[in-house]
Amino acid sequence: MNRTMIVGCIFCSCISFTAAVKAQQPLYKNAALPVEERVDDLLGRMTLEEKILQLNQYTLGRNTNENNLGEEIGQIPAEIGSLIYFGETPEVRNAMQKRAVEESRLGIPLIFGYDVIHGFRTVYPISLAQACSWNTSLVEDACAMAAMEARKSGVDWTFSPMIDVARDGRWGRISEGYGEDPYANAAFCVASVNGYQGDNLKSPDRVAACLKHYVGYGASEAGMDYVYTEISHQTLWDTYLPPYEAGIKAGAQTVMSSFNDISGTPGSSNHYTMTEILKNRWKHDGFVVSDWSAVPQLIAQGAAVDGKEAARLAFNAGLEMDMMGRCYDKHLEALVNEGKVPMERIDDAVRRILRVKFRLGLFEHPYTPAGEPAERFLLPQSVAVAERLAEESIVLLKNEGGILPLLHPGATSTRNIAVMGPLVDAEKELLGNWNGHGRAEDVYPIRKALQEEFAGRANLLFHTGCPFDGDDRTQFAGALEVARQADVLLLFMGERYSWSGENCVRSTIELPAIQCDFIAEMKKVGKPIVLVLANGRPLALGNVEPLCDAIVEMWQPGVPGGRPVAGVLSGRVNPSGKLSVTFPRTTGQIPIYYNRRKSARPASGKYQDIPSTPLYEFGHGLSYTRFDYGRLSLSKTSVAAGEKLVAQIPVTNAGQCDGAETVHWFVSDPVCRITRPNKELKHFEKQLVKAGETKTFSFEIDPMRDLSFVDADGRRFLEPGEYYIMVGGQKAKLEIHE
Ligand code: BGC
């Protein structure tokens, strides 16, 4: 045999050996096969016990001494479906994954989830602020960066976005969503799902998204957390479901069931929402995970008598994975044996979870490659996105007499600026709630940012002035001294990060009394006051607004900290944010939102003690330049249901500096068989308009999409008749004919 023949023989036997191995290899391990075939094959091999374990999620690593993690891992069944992963590096994940892949009979990889809410290590502005940017592509970029940091750290799945429409600022979780409007929540939901998931979930820098909290959690009564919500089916369809429908269409792989009781049926045992709507109508083929312990909490809610009944109700209603409830692992097997849970339902649920694992490529790549934290965390491009997003989120609420920006071009005299308030040196507070692995030391301090921004151009006089809350007024006198030496006072007030988020309810959304008193005290000096706010909810500023010449809402910006707002204060950055949520005058106006249904007597029924209007309405936000809106035009004024048309409006930047403008397009149906609000947002667009330039903003109207509504069972209808397209204070009539 010559050399070529020998090599040939070896080659052939290698091929036949590989083929033989392949033939023996179970189909589910063959990456070349379609996901559904692999799922079927794997499911066919699983025992009931193995199937049930897939339906559970435990935690790994919270508050644990790293040294004991091995022990903790040892206690978790290798066949468990999922773990919440609190680690920042992949080692512990990989150790646990090794057990699942190498020590379980079928080697099914785990899926590791975590709350990557507004960033993993690079913390972006809170979601409520992000929505004020009206810049969906920036939000998508931020989510993509967060996904990269998370996946490379061992997380495959984020419990985000939160798309609960929220209209009660007392509810601490209002900070986690995109505000009060269903359309805005839907738009930012799609952006974030695209950012997290990209077009290929197998990519090493994408994660699966989870739409939460399904559904109506934001309707919490009196703003309290975990409580009952009263939501008619009409409101469910009009207000709470649209962002979810958009997220499912965008391909979100998972959904989290909510804690709240929805008019008598809790979100976590709700067959209508989880099965009839999500699975049957919207054809979602991923899975539903419960919120933390939401399954056993059905007992507290009075829906179930014990954990076993809770498991049966939740599971049969369409909830596939029990997050930390320990009801499925304990009771599902008995429930199947007793015929109370159908085997087909078990198979369907497991199939859904496996499908997502296959799509994420976990069978081929179960381990997260080791990498240097510096190669993924706080990369310059991630921080740059955070900074731009924070800049664009800032809302200039008031600017009396054009007091801002503080540095006018060409101004020569140096000004004394007093900088006071509890937020000046409070980096951690600027991260906002649910700050992942964010660290206070990553946040650009306000003090430093201002010093750099104003270096050589103003004298900054710092003084803490007053605390966040309590009644320690000992610093007031010193602050007054400083204020007297200043030309203008910059007061950094607002909330601690822990005042918003889960289980952070406040009975009033006014600033704490001591902060209000401090502002009033400073007013005595007679110098202009610029109030800068960082907070995690809309605030009721009716009592302090008259004392302030300018008000800047900087929100909780994440790692860019003080830099973006310093830019706005100096004039380097022209503010372009607009409110994603209404700011009332007082807490007593809650719930207050722009798209309320119409009153029987619009001119009466008002509050006797205050104006009934909001202090700052949804969409409000000032700029340093002036935008003049030209004439609104429609390409057609009468169309059939299937015909599209375009609405346009020219916007001119009539001021001296460049600026970005967001145009909000609303529709109104004056008479409808199911009443409608005065106006409803259906489109928005943001563009940079240079000084002196005119840009055209357009809205392509598809009547079936933009002028149709849903009834109480989600059936869409479009009525012929009169509609209005509304933009910037103008409206144009449109006729839909048969
Ligand atoms: C929250 C969810 C979160 C989950 C996991 C729950 O308490 O309501 O939003 O995703 O915990 O941390």
Summarize the model shown.
By secondary structure, this protein is of the alpha/beta class.
CATH superfamily of the largest domain: Glycoside hydrolase, family 3, N-terminal domain
Number of distinct beta strands: 27
- Could you say which small molecules are bound to this protein? beta-D-glucopyranose
Radius of gyration: 28 Å
Main sheet characteristics: 6 strands, mixed
Strand order of the largest sheet: 11-16-15-14-12-13
Poorly predicted regions are 1-15
CATH architecture of the largest domain: Alpha-Beta Barrel
Any idea of the CATH topology of the largest domain?
TIM Barrel
Task: Note the main attributes of this structure.
TIM Barrel; 4 domains; 738 residues; 30% helix; Rossmann fold; six-stranded mixed beta sheet; five-stranded parallel beta sheet; binds beta-D-glucopyranose; 21 helices; alpha/beta
Structure characterization notes:
The protein is of the alpha/beta class and 738 residues long. The protein has 4 domains: 1-30; 35-373, Alpha-Beta Barrel (TIM Barrel); 394-542 and 551-574, Glycoside hydrolase family 3 C-terminal domain (Rossmann fold); 627-737, Immunoglobulins (Immunoglobulin-like, Sandwich). It is 30% helix and 18% strand. The protein contains 21 helices and 27 strands. A 6-stranded mixed sheet has the order 11-16-15-14-12-13, sandwiched between helices. It has a 5-stranded parallel sheet with strand order 4-3-2-1-10. Helix 6 (127-133) crosses helix 16 (380-393), helix 7 (136-151) packs antiparallel against helix 16 (380-393) and helix 13 packs across helix 14 (328-337). The radius of gyration is 28 Å and the shape is globular. It starts with a helix and ends with a strand. The structure holds beta-D-glucopyranose. Beta-D-glucopyranose binds at residues 115, 159, 212, 291-292, 502.
